[in-house]
Amino acid sequence: MRIILLGGPGSGKGTQAKMLVEKLGIPQISTGDIFRAALKEGTPMGLKAKTYMDKGELVPDDVVIGVVQERLSKPDLDKGYMLDGFPRTLGQAKALDKMLESQGKSINHAVLVDVPDEELVKRLSGRRTCRNSACGAMFHVMFNPPKADGVCDICGSELYQRDDDNEKTIRERLAVYNNQTAPLIQYYADKDLLRKVQGVGPIEEIFGRIEKAIL
Ligand code: AP5
Ligand code: MG
Ligand code: ZN
């Protein structure tokens, strides 16, 4: 099964993707995670991406599309995959359609995790992310606190606050989402692939709504 996870910054794409990986046994492909991993390694692509991420802007389409093209050519995707945070522009969506077409494949579901802007700001301001990129678990100081302060429940690594999780950058990410990514909702609705899920409420309940929408 090939799934796109759509939704604003902080809507819970990563949180739900981690649970779906367990349930469906297919990998999560997060372009944001790929850029953060590249930055950690200090590659030119990672350093270039950082200049956009720090401002809350989108990394240029040609860079992102190249990264996804490379990832989609790997051999671990036979059972499918989840795209988290890609596509984010109409150009990316059309490029994805072309890539899939050339592989004789298609998307099964575009799941929109729908959360109002003010809730997104609260979620991102309190998010804590696991520093171990192989784990990458997300917590929230109020809504989903780790058992021990600053320590990942799952792997025991340190938790940190992402550089782009500050109020100014969060506002910019929201504006970018509403201007450049929200048009994809109609794009996938027109293809009859949109599954809109209400994204406010307990994490487990939202997971149940997503399962119902796709299984
Ligand atoms: P990316 O890493 O994709 O960030 P994002 O889209 O802004 O989304 P987030 O990862 O911030 O949120 P999420 O939806 O995963 O929420 P999470 O589950 O963590 O992208 C970062 C940057 O990279 C972009 O700004 C851009 O520069 C660049 N980039 C990436 N992809 C790109 C692309 N395709 N094109 C161009 N540029 C690209 O949850 C958030 C918080 O809420 C957590 O603390 C969590 O514990 C909490 N939470 C989750 N669910 C709930 C709930 N139900 N109730 C209460 N709290 C909850
Ligand atoms: Mg994420
Ligand atoms: Zn961890």
Can you walk me through this structure?
- Helix 2 (31-41) crosses helix 3, helix 4 (61-72) packs parallel to helix 5 (90-103) and helix 6 (117-125) crosses helix 7 (167-181).
- The protein starts with a strand and ends with a helix.
- The mean pLDDT is 97.
- It has helices at 13-24, 31-41, 44-53, 61-72, 90-103, 117-125, 167-181, 183-190, 203-214; strands spanning 2-6, 28-30, 81-84, 109-114, 127-130, 138-140, 159-160, 194-198.
- A hairpin with a 7-residue loop joins strand 5 (127-130) and strand 6 (138-140).
- It has a five-stranded parallel beta sheet with strand order 2-3-1-4-8, with helices on both faces.
- With 215 residues, the protein is an alpha/beta fold.
- The chain is built from nine helices and eight strands.
- Residues 7, 9-15, 30-32, 35, 52-53, 56-59, 64, 85-86, 88, 92, 123-124, 127, 138-140, 143-144, 164, 173, 201, 203, 206 line the site of BIS(adenosine)-5'-pentaphosphate.
- Magnesium ion binds at residues 13-14, 30, 32.
